[in-house]
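[scheduler] slot 2 assigned
[scheduler] job type: sequence-to-structure, two independent chains
[scheduler] chain ordering preserved from manifest
[runner] begin chain α
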Amino acid sequence: MVLGITGKYCAGKSAVSEVLSAWGWHIIDVDRLGHHALIEKRDEVLQRFGRELDDGAGGIDRKRLGAIVFRNRTALRYLERIVHPSMVAMVDSRLAELGVSGAPGGAGGAGSDAPGGAGAAGSDQTAADSAPGAPGAPAEPGAPAGGGAPGAPAGGDPPEPDSTADHAAAGVDAAGAPAGPRVAINAALLYPMGLAERCDRVAWVHAGFFARFRRARRRDGIGLLEMLRREHAQKRIRPQFYRVDVDIVTVTNTGERATLERRLHEIIAG
């Protein structure tokens, strides 16, 4: 099973990935792949955006590049044309390594005008969450602390019998997912990059604006004006703008891990 994870800035995509990783899922963090793509395409980025972006250590000054593309849609589109094809190729390579073949989804995303599915009109997530301006891509605030497997009995009740064998016989894993590779693709630009086509199901992670703003202030130290700018720039990352035949489910991230785990159980088993 391949599950896509997407949503707006600071909605809690990393919180979802954290839970799935604890359950043994393979996580493909596309935002982090953007860092590798910048290094791979370093010369092209410097030629396009200026040699002053050279960080002196063989890479790109992502903060300075982010300052350019955050405020210039044309510059953002050029950057996406440079790095997105490499990022998509990296995802496909990882899926192949994990034994996932084919693209379970359907037709390509509307409005994708650059190679490899790049070209999300007005989206700032390549700059904000992957290549240029990411502050080390920490786990998103709102990702609740603590681990542990879901469904653990509370109040001292005795644990349920181990049902691993029963799950295997039924062709599902302990979380209810079909047996086989269990992979999650975490990408703010899942649809604009054409990656939803690789997924069996997509989880749209939702949190209210002010909850996301509080997380953004704690994580990135941004103010309200910058938050509003990013909110405006993300208008077209929502699934309804793209023609992809894949189930979409909403995951509301309240910051409570137990609630998040229950919802993910429902999605995987469904």
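[runner] end chain α
[runner] begin chain β
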Amino acid sequence: MYTLYGALASPYSMKMRAVPRYRRIPFVWKDGAAVAEALKKVRAPVIPVLEFPEGSLANDSTPLIHYLEARHGNRSIVPPDLAIAFLACLLEDFADEWLTKPMFGYRWLEEVDQVQMSRWLAHIDDLSGHEGEWSTEPSECAFKLARIAGEVYALLLAADAVAFESGADQFTFEAMGQSYSQVIFKYQVRWLANLRARFALLGENDRQRAPGMIGTDWSALLGEG
């Protein structure tokens, strides 16, 4: 049996908890004092932490999702179409590393936000009863999100990588008419390399289809190096 340690206020914990629920993988959810104990057993003290049936523990939600994909074949959350799967990977990273910024500011700010998030917590958090088939094409919403990500997040990844290579401590970039600055984030440097490697592994047909899904900003960035 898996044990997942997290907190209700943590978006990454909620993301991770939704995965085994949808996939109908038995697990135990623990929060509170149990989390503090679990954090002592992982390298980076961040949640969620997943304890595997054999007793090992690991964290970082994206790798954890792929660990479960490798271990369990039922109700996969990775699209079978490789080009669409790459788009899904890109959008997940965008949500993890950029959309959390406005989320923390707006999720409970206005009444409309409070109503929306309450509905999410009540319904979308548990899709174990959902049945369906994968679409053969991404939704229009997915296309639009990928292009927004290209206009903002792709620029951040590019600027972060250049600054890291130059030995700078921080960087600034312009996106959508605004200036944004932050310190170097090595995790994003590694993840850009991961995205480029995933893109390079696509077959010729999927590589030709992908730019139409992810947009020109991403295509230019991922085609480098």
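[runner] end chain β
[qc] chain β: The beta strands are 2-5, 27-30, 49-51, 57-59, 170-175, 178-183.
[scheduler] slot 2 released
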